[in-house]
C-alpha cells in the first residue's frame, strides 16, 4: 500500500490546528503525499472536491472554522472524498465535544483518529475510560467499536497499542515509540497519514488502509529512535526523515499487527 | 524545582502567537510540562480554569484574540491560576502597547516576560532605554522594578543578562547563548517555561521560580551550543533536546545567578 | 549583496501563511534579516511603514487577511517599501486567483515569486502551461515576461530552473536541489529572502537583487544536501544552517546564472 501511495501521490486537504500545520505538511510530503492547507469558507469546497482525502482536526477550534469544516466535509461527501476526523481534546472542553458531534452528525465521516479519552468522550463513556493513554485495552476496544458502530466509520484509537476497527474487523498494532508523545503533532500527523492512505483505496478498504498507515507510522518511529536518540527535538526531525525512508517491505517485515 | 516540575507535569494553557506555537509546545513537552493551545472565547475559560498556568503572548495580536485572552485571564484569576504575559512587540506599534495595557488593567498578571524595550514601552520609558538588547543594565533594572511595582507582578526582563524582580528582590542571570536570538520563538518559549515553573509553586515563590526557569533555560542553551554549533537550524533542535536532558543538578551547578 | 544584507539587517514584515511562519522567520534570521509577523488591520500599516520590505503570501487566505494585506500594501507603497507577492495556489481555486488579482490591482507590487503554474494562472495562461514544475522552460519565460509587463514588476518564476525578469532583462538560475520540494515552506521562504534582498537596494536593482537572492538560496540548498542527506527533516534544518553560513564569495563562485 505504501508503494501505491507514493505512486498516487494523493492530494490531502488538511484543515488542521495551528500548532501542527508545518509538521503535518512535512510528514505528508515525506511519505509521498501532497498536502494542501485551506481554511476559508470561500474555497474549502473547491479544495475538498479536488483532493484525494480531507482531514478535519479540531485542535485549535473556532466557530468559524467549524462552519468551514462542515462545508468542506459535505463537499467531500458529494465528491466521494474520504473524510478523516481528529477530535483533539474532545472531552477536555464541552466546546470541543460539541464541535465533534456536529461534524459527525452533518458530515459522513469515514475514519476517526483519536486517543482513548477523546473517543470515549465522543460516545459518552468518559467515566469509563480512566487510563487514557493505553493501559485499559479492553475499554479501548469497547469505545472504538461503539464509535465505529454509532457513526458507521472506522475508529483508529491510538495509544501504546493502537486499535483499528470498523465495528467488526479489529486490528491491533503494537509498533511505535514512547518518544512520539514528546513531539507535538505526532498524533495529528498520524491522522494525516491515515488520510493519505485512505485516499488511495476504496471505502471497503479503509480499515485495512488505516491499519497499514498506523503500522507504517510505528515502524518509522522505531527506525527514527534507532537513528537519533539524542533528544526529543532531533528525534522529531529523524522521524520525518524515516517517514520518507521507510519502505513497504520494511513495514511488512517489522509491523506487529494482530487481527 | 525542575524535578518537581517533571513530577507535577503541569498543564500550561498557551494563547501564543502563530509563529511560535509548535516550538513552544515542543519545548514545554521536553522540559516536562503539558502544553495545550486554545484560543476560542467559547472554551478559553474552561481551559484556563483547568490549567496550572496561563500564557498570554501577543506576538500576532488581533482584537478578537485580545478579548479571548482577557476572558481567559479573568477565569485564571478566579481559579488562582498564574497568568504570564509576554508583550511581544510592545512599543513597535501602538496597537500592541494598548493591548498589553488593557490586559494588565483587566487581568491580575503574575509575571511579565519581555525584553528591555518592550518593558520600557509598557511603563512609558521608551525614550530612556535605547540599547534594547542588554547593554544598558542599569536601565533594565529600572524598568523592571517600575513594571513590577506598577502592576504588582514579577518582571522578567531578558537580554544578555536577565533581570528578574518583584520590585524588591532582584536576581540577575548570566546564562544563555547568543545563538538563541537567531532561532525564532526562543524568547516566547521562555515565557512558556516560566509559566510551567510558576504552575508548580505558590505565588510568593513566583520570583524564585522565574529565576530558576531563566537559569535552566540558559544552561540548556549553553549545553545545546556545545552539542551542536553547526548552524542555527540544528542549534534550535539541539536546544529542544537539551531542555529535555538538563537536570536540576546541572542547573544548580552551572547557573550564574546573582541576587 | 549578501554582505550588505547582513550589515543592513532589514526588517521584513511578513504576512504569510500559517503553514510556513516559523520556517520563514528562521530562514530570515539565519540569512541576516529581522522578520516580523503582523496581520491585524489595526497595525499592519504601522508595521509596513517601518519595515524594509513587505511580504504578502496568500497560502492560507481569508477575506479578512486580504483586506489587511491591501491596507499594508498601500502603506508600503506610500513609504516606498518594496512589496513582494507570493501567489500560493493561484489557479488551484478561483478564490486565490481573485485575491491575487485584487492585490495586484490595488497595490503596486514590486516582485512576484511563484511557480510556473501560479504565474500562468495570474496572466490567464493556465491552459498553456502544463508541466508546472519546471519542464517547459519556454513557457515559463513567456508567462514570466507577460506578468512582468502586465504589472510592471519583477517576476521570479521558480522551478528546476528559475527565471527572473523585469520584462526586459532575463536571468535564469540553475542552482538548488530537488529535496527543497520535499520540505514545506521552502518556496515561501524564498519569497521572504527575495524581500530581504529587495529591502537593501533601490527599485532599479530589484531584478538583480532577486536573481542574487535566488542564487544564494540555491547555493545554500546545494551545501545543505552535502552536509545532510539523511532525510527530508534533517535536510530542512541543514538548509537553515546553510542560509546562515553561505557567504557572498561562495554565491559568486557557485552560482549558475545566465542572463
From TrEMBL, chains A, B, C:
Q: Which residues bind ATP?
A: 113, 158
Q: Which cofactor does it need?
A: Mg(2+)
Keywords for the protein's UniProt record, in alphabetical order = ATP-binding, Kinase, Magnesium, Metal-binding, Nucleotide-binding, Thiamine biosynthesis, Transferase
Pathway the protein acts in: Cofactor biosynthesis; thiamine diphosphate biosynthesis; 4-methyl-5-(2-phosphoethyl)-thiazole from 5-(2-hydroxyethyl)-4-methylthiazole: step 1/1
Question: Top enzyme class of this protein?
Answer: transferase
Q: Which Pfam families does the entry mention?
A: HK
Q: Which positions bind substrate?
A: 37, 185
Which reaction equations make up its catalytic activity? Answer: 5-(2-hydroxyethyl)-4-methylthiazole + ATP = 4-methyl-5-(2-phosphooxyethyl)-thiazole + ADP + H(+)
According to its UniProt record, the EC number is 2.7.1.50
Entry GO MF terms? hydroxyethylthiazole kinase activity
Q: Which NCBIfam families match?
A: PRK09355.1 (NF006830), thiM (TIGR00694)
Q: What does this protein do?
A: Catalyzes the phosphorylation of the hydroxyl group of 4-methyl-5-beta-hydroxyethylthiazole (THZ).
Tell me which family the UniProt entry assigns to this protein: Belongs to the Thz kinase family.
User: In its UniProt entry, what is this protein called?
Assistant: Hydroxyethylthiazole kinase
The gene it comes from is thiM
